[in-house]
């Protein structure tokens, strides 16, 4: 335990100079100009939906989500540019965050198997499946238990997909941007999945057009995204985990996504709300609040590591919050999960669409 902590402290110390150079120029350079219209429908009646900060990594910066009053689309405005996306993604899924995120995804095997079973009613034995935004490929590894004869490939712009190939969770790994790689993959896949991917993309419509290229005729596109119409998004405000600022750039109401898929030549064959719901809303909200109160833990984007007193205060506050975390877990699982479909509490929705 002590050696692991010492290794992490050395890693943070090695990363600190580069982060401090990045921040010395200010965070304003990480953003594009603010938009006056909706990126989904072009509507010009925009209202502010949320103002927040980075509640997970606690990197500097403030982020705004606007809502289009014409179509209901919610989007980050101003949006991060490529430099900003690199800065805020850095050390989240890889680097400092690789081990922690890997352990989290490793523990979700049953949820991945349930996802895979959802396709069986529409295609009981797909030959080739491409998971876009695969991360480290944990879904593909779990889905193989359900579909042992399916070849699972992964695509991602982070080095996670190379980890997926190294750990043999995917058969083929494609690293890069999906729209740019789509022409070489055209018509090759029975299923293309996008699990909590579209909300990360800078241009969801372009991603959907790429998917239409890659899915063969009669094949299926499988999408899970956060539901911006969930009641939890209003009740919990900035503490609702699916807002996930600054990574989540777009939140698409289900009616909008259905309509766009139909325009692109898909037929929606399934819409699910209860099944993709992840029963963690209160637990995650309590955790985000709890981590926001005490001094921050050491990170390379801090000018200097916290001293012993600040570390002791943080530990004390986190331990005091354990009962709230337990209560949140119980309420999520036993009170809210059964109501997810009927009460509009589901935090995500799923669409499965067949390419005509």
Automatic annotation (TrEMBL):
Q: Name one Pfam family in it.
A: Methyltransf_23
Q: Does the keyword Translocase apply?
A: no
Indicate whether NADP appears among the record's keywords.
no
Query: Where are the bilayer-spanning segments?
Result: none
Name the UniProt key words of this record, in alphabetical order.
Methyltransferase, Transferase
Q: Which GO terms label this protein's molecular function in UniProt?
A: methyltransferase activity
The GO annotation for biological process reads: antibiotic biosynthetic process; methylation
Annotated protein name in UniProt? Class I SAM-dependent methyltransferase
Organism from which the protein derives: Streptomyces roseirectus
């Amino acid at each position: 335990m002590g050696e692991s902590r010492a290794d992490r402290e050395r890693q943070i110390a090695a990363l600190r100079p580069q982060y401090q150079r990045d921040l010395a120029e200010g965070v304003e350079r990480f953003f594009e100009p603010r938009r006056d219209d909706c990126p989904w429908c072009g509507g010009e009646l925009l209202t502010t939906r949320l103002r927040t900060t980075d509640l997970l990594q606690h990197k500097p910066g403030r982020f705004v989500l606007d809502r289009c009053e014409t179509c209901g689309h919610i989007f980050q405005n101003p949006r991060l540019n490529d430099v900003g996306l690199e800065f805020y993604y850095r050390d989240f899924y890889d680097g400092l965050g690789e081990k922690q995120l890997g352990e989290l995804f490793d523990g979700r095997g049953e949820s991945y198997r349930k996802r895979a079973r959802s396709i069986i009613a529409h295609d009981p034995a797909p030959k080739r499946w491409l998971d876009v935004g695969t991360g480290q490929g944990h879904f593909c590894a779990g889905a193989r238990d359900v579909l042992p004869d399916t070849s699972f490939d992964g695509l991602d712009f982070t080095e996670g997909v190379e980890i997926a190939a190294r750990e043999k969770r995917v058969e083929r790994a494609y690293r890069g941007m999906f729209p740019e790689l789509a022409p070489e993959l055209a018509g090759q896949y029975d299923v293309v999945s996008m699990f909590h991917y579209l909300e990360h993309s800078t241009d969801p419509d372009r991603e959907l057009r790429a998917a239409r290229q890659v899915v063969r005729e009669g094949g299926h596109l499988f999408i899970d995204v956060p539901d911006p119409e969930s009641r939890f998004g209003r009740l919990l405000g900035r503490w609702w985990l699916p807002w996930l600022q600054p990574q989540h750039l777009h939140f698409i109401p289900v009616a909008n996504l259905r309509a766009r898929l139909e325009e692109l030549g898909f037929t929606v064959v399934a819409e699910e709300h209860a099944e993709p719901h992840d029963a963690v809303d209160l637990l995650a909200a309590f955790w985000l609040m709890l981590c926001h109160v005490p001094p921050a833990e050491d990170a390379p984007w801090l000018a200097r590591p916290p001293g012993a007193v600040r570390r002791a205060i943080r530990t004390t506050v986190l331990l005091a919050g354990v009962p709230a975390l337990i209560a949140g877990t119980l309420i999520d699982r036993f009170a809210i999960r059964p109501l997810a479909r009927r009460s509009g509490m589901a935090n995500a929705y799923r669409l499965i669409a067949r390419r005509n």
